[in-house]
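Sequence in, structure out.
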Amino acid sequence: MPIEFVAGDLFENAYNAQAFGHGCNCQGSMGAGVAKTLRALYPEMYEEYRRRCKAEPREFNLGECWLWKSNERPWVFNLGTQEGYWRARASYEAIETSLRKMSGQADAEKLSRIAIPRIGVGYGGLSWKKVRAIVEDVFANWPGTLIVYEVYEPASTSRTEAESSDRFDSRRKGRPGDAGDRSVIQFYTVSDSYGCFSNFSPHPFRLNGKMWPTSEHYFQAQKFAGTDSEEEIRQAKSPMIAARMGRSRKRPLRKDWESVKDRIMHEAVLAKFTQHVELRETLLATGNVQIVEHTENDAYWGDAGDGSGKNRLGQILMRVREELRSTSE
């Protein structure tokens, strides 16, 4: 079947896509949604995208498809689906034109598996029913497989309506790095306003003489420090895969893990927020606001969804905030 409509997290890449495709504006902004995450994951791609959009004459336009090739991650098809951003709507015609170009480029590059979100919907303001019909028409006879994430489900979690509402409210009340007059900041997924607080956020750092793709990679790997599993987890292609490897009891867990796990988490969080200036500024800008990992799936690192959990990750973030504050005074 050339098209598979699935539910899940695009960036977990559970279907082993060789490339991602996503809709872009032609003004050089990747400030929201899927594009924002891609900007963080592919900073060099973002800089080239900005250059193309700001060039005179402009080098990235409506209906175009520009392919970014990466040595370490899936490639990315940047589709020119809308002229402006925020209040500007995407274009059905541009979506069809850019998708056809993506199909042709994929054939030329011998790519057979591409994953896309609901392009043009959400910030693009279009009807998914109409966009889906375009997708089905363009890829009906494509020899490869197009994976369409029709339903977004954050990795390793299922959201309740109350959680979703809380997150929407938190996004309306403030921006990342601006705590405003809120008394509590809640986070969980990378797409949240304070998604950089998540261990899954794509912010690599150096610790113990090695580069770690995320703090999740480091934390899970330390369960098997000094064994082959440590390096295998460090090289995992995504934090979700690293988490699954670390939680598997097929690997022999170090005997002192329960007594050292909080220290290990602190090491990872401190390194991450020390080595990224923008993260340091965002954390310090929260002032004395309480930070909570809000999820019903974890009663130790999170708040268990109802406030009964220990919220150890939130506590560590606040501790690191104090440490960073003391070194900057």
